[in-house]
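Please predict the structure of the following assembly.
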Amino acid sequence: MPEPRLGIVGATGAVGRVTLELLAERGYEHVRAFASARSAGMRLPFGAGELEVEEATPQALSAGELDLCFFSVGTAASRALVPEAVRSGAVCVDKSSAYRLQDGVPLVVPEVNGERALDHDGIVANPNCCTIPLTCALEPLRQAAGLRRVRVATYQSASGAGTQSMERLRAETPAEHDLRMDWDFDGVEFDEEAKLRAETRKILELPELPLAATCVRVPVLVGHAEAVWVETDEALSADEARALLEAAPGVVVEDFPTPGTAAGRDDVLVGRIRDDPTAENGLSLFVVCDNLRKGAALNAIQIAELLLARRAVAA
Amino acid sequence: MPEPRLGIVGATGAVGRVTLELLAERGYEHVRAFASARSAGMRLPFGAGELEVEEATPQALSAGELDLCFFSVGTAASRALVPEAVRSGAVCVDKSSAYRLQDGVPLVVPEVNGERALDHDGIVANPNCCTIPLTCALEPLRQAAGLRRVRVATYQSASGAGTQSMERLRAETPAEHDLRMDWDFDGVEFDEEAKLRAETRKILELPELPLAATCVRVPVLVGHAEAVWVETDEALSADEARALLEAAPGVVVEDFPTPGTAAGRDDVLVGRIRDDPTAENGLSLFVVCDNLRKGAALNAIQIAELLLARRAVAA
């Protein structure tokens, strides 16, 4: 297979930079970095060298020079630019929420529903940074015992809201640190909470799964955590759940995982695996991952590698 | 009623200092501050003046010179010193977990079960800083519709772990901020989680109430938050719950309460009041309070004032 020609749109953002870092670590050579006009000309580290950032114009992306392109930009920018790249034959792995719930667009966590990626029509969507670790932890339980309902309280880091949010946290005094709820509100819940429900249902192919989320931003730079209560259809003890999770791909079981222990690592960490004594077939878990890696850049690269290995990219 | 002679043991701690501040604001004059030998002689602000810290010896506390004494010290120190003060006729309001679950010791949140305080035998226990706001939010729902089960994920601030924990947070760089789980672990859960269950059961007088908690320390200086899912025995809509909470003593309903909005205030803030679509008669709430005030010092002072008003102190 010829070396694929890769693009990263949104290369200067928090996820874009980690995507570049991971691609360099993995030995990819034909990589181009794109961003808005404001960042064009900027130089970003790439392996031992640098990449000059190009402006992400429709022309540049539709020139037919890319086999696969990662998009880590806002929803509006993805809606404008992804179709250009698709039209020229590039497969797009898109991190925005623009296409995640669109019929015909696979929404993929490789360890959970990787086969779905092969059935793409030019776009594969990369889920929300909380959905990815949640589905990695739920899928082994679903396979063994079915899922009846799920409740999630999140502890999401500043990096999930982008580099400006990280800068704001860095500039704060400790007395200014607060919990934040910086998402769009529909009158009942945040879009982040609705995404977590809808995306989990799509990935697990459980369109009616009852799932309630309370999303909260915490003053941590990197790493998202989730306190999860899950009820299964059939009985599953905490010990059985632990054994299933220990055997699950992409999951590492630790007693007390935190964002600090997850940052810079590729795995989803699952700990505090307990019976939930309040409900029949109830379990509780604490799920943590590096939201920039497995929650975003790494998951996108894993999707890309799955497509490349299965020759589902026209390289 | 003569002006009560008050003592504060643990006056130099995070809760002790707030207790002094609140007592000065409320116009109490006969106040003595006690702490360990290490802090004896230190001067603490009190209103326009200062108090000199006295050593909290058994002799000092059993001299019969105090009508009511607040204890904000560790469990071992409370076990050693509270009985000395009780023996000399002082009523003790104890913040440690030493006596909270002891038969015959009332565990009191004035808005919830204030009458119980009158039935003391020298000690009234002040609940855990997460239990107090939780019971303030649950009691109006219990009265209206009964409680079937409760799940809580906490976001607890550094000040709940004392001044050293606050200093550590202040000294950290943002990159070092992490979620922490700094409680004793019994092999299944943290003592903090067991306390939240046992104390809530005792205060609400629901000894079998199913309650599961996941406790997490967040990098915030002051203010505890709790994501709560509650199922009631009878149907209760989110609108009905909101109306009940708006009318509840000590509770203020806000849309998006955070520790930053609660710090320095006396009320328990309850927001994000929603139907929980995953369960019959399910609701979810977000409960926040200043853990040093209503979660600790203020609740103790409210207990004291209730006793003084009802002449349940031999002043």
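Chain B has a mean pLDDT of 97. DSSP finds ten helices and 14 strands in chain B.
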